[in-house]
Amino acid sequence: MVKKTGAEREVFIKVFITIILLILLIHFAAHFINTEVGDYRKSMQMATQILTHTYISPSIEHGGLFFILSVVGSVFYIYLIYTIISIVYMGNFGQMLSEGRTMKSIAKLKDHFIICGGGRVGSNVAKELKKLNKHLVVIEYDIELAKQLRRLGILVLEGDSLEKENLNAAGINHAKCLISCLGSDGDNVLLTITAKDLNPKLNVIARVNYERFVDKLRSVGANVVVMPEIVGGIKIAQLAAKEI
After folding, report:
1. What is the rounded distance in angstroms from the CA atom of residue 186 to the CA atom of residue 166?
2. CA 15 to CA 86: how far, in whole Å?
């Protein structure tokens, strides 16, 4: 089961509160109307109509109650309009739909690649895997980097790669490989530990900046450890040797 994203939870809470308030208001109004009518079902119907300003009954003596309920109904409608505006025009609704589509796409992935970190290294890894028609998802905390990757047609899950919730949302239990491209060697070590804890069979490729972390990463379960500077240096040397 896919967990709700932050935007989805926020919208869900607002809608839930609105519905609960409406139910409470109707029951509150029906309770007082029932003291005059003596029929709770009819009181519920009348309360709904009063709160929606569609009904006024001269048969009830307490006109003040009608006025109060009408005012309460007006306040509720103001709150409802505010909720709708905040959801639609503050971007939450659009973000929710976008994240919802992303989560549905991720949920369908099997034997895919999870790239943690969409910076210079991670983004290039993602581009190359996409060229090879591999299924992948990138977990990236930076909003702008996430947008850039999405424009390339790459699935991106916004969030911290070190949080288990995000790794689970990325489908770590049925992923083929996790590629740790975080900027900090310490974070790559911690991510490797967390990933292996969630899925012991997962292949992990970790980026490292300093050689002293190579053995540490291997000891915590990284299958492959790569130093981009060394790989780049070797490639440059090979190309230079061919030109001589």
Report:
1. 19
2. 11
Cβ-contact 65, 54 below 8 angstroms: no
Query: What tokens does 54 get?
Result: 């569609």
What is the architecture of the domain spanning 109-243?
Answer: 3-Layer(aba) Sandwich (3.40)
The candidate with the shortest Cα–Cα distance to 75, out of 29, 136, 13, is: 29
- Assign 80 a pLDDT band (cuts: 50, 70, 90): confident
3-state SS class at 186: helix
184 three-state secondary structure = coil
Q: Lowest-confidence range among 34-38, 99-103, 139-143, 233-237? A: 99-103
- State pLDDT tens for residues 7-33: 556 666 777 887 887 788 778 778 877
Rounded (10°) CA dihedral 176, 149, 209, 242: 90
Domain chopping of the chain, boundaries: 6-88, 109-243
How long a stretch of residues is the chain?
244
Where are the extended beta strands (E) located within 130-186? 136-140, 155-158, 177-180
Q: What percent of the chain has pLDDT over 70?
A: 79
DSSP E strands, the chain = 113-116, 136-140, 155-158, 177-180, 203-207, 224-226
